[in-house]
Amino acid sequence: MLKLMIGVVIATVIVIFAFTVINHNMNANRQGNTSVYVVDDNFLSITVTGQVTKPGTYVVKKDETVGDLIMAAGGPTSNADARAYIEETLLVAGVNYYIAPINDLDDYCGEMPLKKVNINFDPKDKLMEINGIGDTLASAIIQYRGEHGDFTYLEEVMKVKGIAKATFEKIKNHIILR
């Protein structure tokens, strides 16, 4: 029994030492490196999530569109809301695109339509019907679209003063572009 316990202790020490060396080597290899390498200035690494068949990160040409990205991701699912993306929109470097659902994902049957507002058209009172958009944000959305034109992708709403990632996450399933 004593020999078994000594063997287990020795094996544990060896495993801990091995993991320490492996972890150190992995950290040394990562310094200064990223997981995305630029091969050519004509390509972008873009992430798409939400209602696409294969969410993930794709390498696409700079002049490609949201529609091209969706097709690279296997196309939209049957629950994708086509009003929440504009296929002709050129991709923007650094943006992670989200394809919103038509129906509530928390609904057991998945057949309950989500309440949506059009951030390019609806008036202030309609925008305020969405939880997370109050008087100030509704006014800021209207001001932004007046100064910059229509929103062309959902994530663009984060350019509105007062809408950060947390607010976007709260409203992204409830806004449409057309």
**Which percent band covers the strand fraction?**
5-15%
Per CATH, the class of the largest domain reads Alpha Beta
Decide which structural class fits the backbone: alpha/beta
Count the E strands.
5
In total, the number of domains comes to 3
* Overall mean confidence score, pLDDT: 86
Q: Low-confidence segments, ≥5 residues, pLDDT <50?
A: 23-37
- How many helices does DSSP assign? 5
User: What is the gyration radius calculated from CA atoms?
Assistant: 23 Å
Distance between the termini: 74 Å
Note the overall shape.
Answer: elongated
In which range does the helix fraction lie? 25-40%
- What series of H and E elements makes up the topology? HEEHEEHHHE
CATH topology of the largest domain: the name is: Ubiquitin-like (UB roll)
User: How are the strands of the biggest sheet laid out side by side?
Assistant: 2-1-3
Oligomer: single chain
CATH-defined architecture of the largest domain: Roll
Mind describing the biggest β-sheet? 3 strands, mixed
